[in-house]
Design a protein that fits this description.
Blueprint lengths: L1 H15 L14 E4 L8 H23 L12 E12 L2 E11 L6 E10 L4 E3 L8 H24 L34
Parallel strand pairs: 1-2
Antiparallel strand pairs: 2-3, 3-4, 4-5
Length: 191
């Protein structure tokens, strides 16, 4: 009897994914990743987005296998990414994603992501990569952006925001900000 029972138990464990001594992982739920609808196929961009999807999924799925969270109710957990095409010009595609996640706690986390895609190189480029002289562009754009940001802060808050305030600094468009062009000039981005 024992000779038949032990192999049967091992077979059931193999079918259910449970191995004696191994950690149990909850099934991954609440994951959504929507690819953009491109007007023409772009294999390199598709690969880039598939790699992004795989990384986002790996990071999210790791929570479900974390032994420290084994008693957690994952039913409200969520990770969602929705890519859209913002603009397409010869050689450049601008994609924007709304990303949101909830992994417990008081509230979720939502943010916007973007990719400036160089179709000729088949790779993403930075905002600074749009310019032949990034230093000159930074010197021109950052001060104008910071003045506009301070005017908006004043209008919304009713008083000037001190520079040493937590929300008083001005992010560098070429380092910290998620910047992408939205309005081409005469149908193209001027480099």
């Amino acid at each position: 009897m024992r000779n038949r029972l032990f192999p049967a138990i091992l077979a059931i464990c193999a079918l259910t994914g449970f191995a004696p001594g191994a950690a149990w992982a909850a099934p991954v739920t609440g994951f959504a990743y929507d690819m953009p609808k491109l007007p023409a196929p772009d294999p390199a961009l598709s690969r880039y987005l598939q790699q992004d999807r795989a990384k986002v999924y790996r990071d999210y799925a790791a929570l479900f296998a974390d032994p420290d969270l084994s008693a957690e109710d994952f039913s409200s957990y969520e990770s969602a990414t929705n890519w859209t095409v913002d603009s397409i010009l010869p050689g450049v595609k601008i994609l924007v994603a709304g990303r949101a996640s909830y992994t417990g706690g008081a509230h979720g986390y939502a943010f916007v992501d973007s990719v400036i895609w160089d179709s000729k190189a088949g790779a993403p480029i930075s905002f600074a990569g749009l310019f032949t002289n990034p230093s000159a562009a930074r010197a021109l754009l950052n001060p104008a952006y910071c003045r506009a940001l301070d005017r908006e802060r004043l209008a919304r808050r009713g008083e000037p925001t001190p520079k040493d305030d937590m929300f008083g600094a001005c992010p560098d468009l070429f380092k910290e900000a998620e910047a992408y062009p939205t309005k081409p000039v005469y149908g193209k981005y001027s480099r």
